[in-house]
Amino acid sequence: MTQTTAPIDHIRIATRQSPLAMWQAKHIQACLQALYPSCHIELIPMVTKGDKILDTPLAKIGGKGLFVKELEQALYDKRADIAVHSLKDVPMDLPEGLMLGAFCERERPTDAFVSNHFASLDDLPHGARLGTSSLRRQCQIQQHRPDLDIISLRGNVGTRLGKLDADEYDAIILATSGLIRLGLGERVRHELPTDVCLPAVGQGALAIECRSDDRAILAALAPLNHLASKICVLAERAMNRELQGGCQVPIAGFAQVDIGRLWLQGRVGSVDGRVLLKAERHETLALTPENPNAERLAEAVGVDVARQLLDQGADKILAEIYST
C-alpha cells in the first residue's frame, strides 16, 4: 500500500474479543497503519450479547445482529470511529447515521467440511452427527444428505473445533475464510461445492462500519475498498433485503464477477431441506471505478433474483420460519 498523509491523527476500532474478530480488527489496523504511519490506531475490544448467549440457536434470540449492536453503540457514543465486521453478520439495514464505509477484498467464501475421521460430506455414514449453527447450511445439506443428524453448534471457532475434537460430532461445518484467517487452514478436509451449499450473503468479506457524517474517516477508509468484492456483496445484500431476510435464515446468495459479467445465484429453503428454491441472473457489467452505474446495476440484479425466488414461493417459506 502507498503511504500517505492521514486525514485524521487517531482512529479507534471497536471489535469483539473473539480470536477471529480480533484477527480481523488487527488486520484492518495493520492496513491502515501501512497507509498512514503517523496515525495512532487503537483497538477497543468489547463483548456483545451474541458472545454472551451461547446455549441458544441464534435464530431464536435475534440473529447475528446481536454481534454488532454494542459496536454500533460505541460509534454513536463516539467511543470508537470504526467497527470491523464479518459482512455476513451485518443486518441488511443499518441504523440511521451509520454506514459501511469500506468493503475489503473477500477471502474464500465457501463452507468448510471439518472432521477428524471423514474426508468429505459424502463420506459420512448414515446417521452421522453434523454440527452447524446455520439454518442456511442445514437446509442445503439436508437436501443433499437427508440421512444426517444435524445438531446445533454455537461458540467461536476454537470452541467448535474443541467440541469436534471431543467427539461430540462426527463433523462440523465452518466458514473456510475464518479458518484461513486464524491459521487453521489445515483443518479444512473439504470445501463444499457451491452446488451443494451456496455461501451466505457476504460470507468471507470484511466490512468497516462508521458514522455516515464522518468525512475524515470515510476518506481514510477509501483505499481499503475492493471494487469487485464490493459489487458482489452489494448484489447479494440487495437480494436479501428484497426477500426481507435477516442474517440467520435459510437464505443463500453468492455473486461473482468475471470477464465483464456479474453472476448472482440465490437460494431459499425449508429448514428440513425438503424444499430448496433456486434462481440466478447473469448481467454484463463494466467494472471500473469510473462506472457510476455499477453499484446500481449490482443492486438491481439482486432485486431481480429475489423476485424470482418470491415468485417460486420464498415468502411463504420465510414466513413459516419467522412464525416459529
Automatic annotation (TrEMBL):
Q: Which Pfam families match?
A: Porphobil_deam, Porphobil_deamC
Substrates-to-products reaction catalysed: 4 porphobilinogen + H2O = hydroxymethylbilane + 4 NH4(+)
- Gene3D superfamilies hit by this protein: Periplasmic binding protein-like II (3.40.190.10), Porphobilinogen deaminase, C-terminal domain (3.30.160.40)
- What cofactors are annotated for this protein? dipyrromethane
- Record PROSITE patterns: PORPHOBILINOGEN_DEAM
Q: Where is the Porphobilinogen deaminase N-terminal domain?
A: 11-217
- Among its keywords, does the record have Kinase? no
Name any Gene Ontology BP term: protoporphyrinogen IX biosynthetic process
Location of the Porphobilinogen deaminase C-terminal domain: 231-310
* An example Gene Ontology CC term for this record: cytoplasm
- Any GO MF annotation of the entry: hydroxymethylbilane synthase activity
Q: What else is known?
A: The porphobilinogen subunits are added to the dipyrromethane group.
Q: Its quaternary structure? A: Monomer.
- Which NCBIfam families does the record associate with it? hemC
Record-stated family: Belongs to the HMBS family.
- What protein is this chain from? Porphobilinogen deaminase
The taxonomy runs:
Bacteria, Pseudomonadati, Pseudomonadota, Gammaproteobacteria, Moraxellales
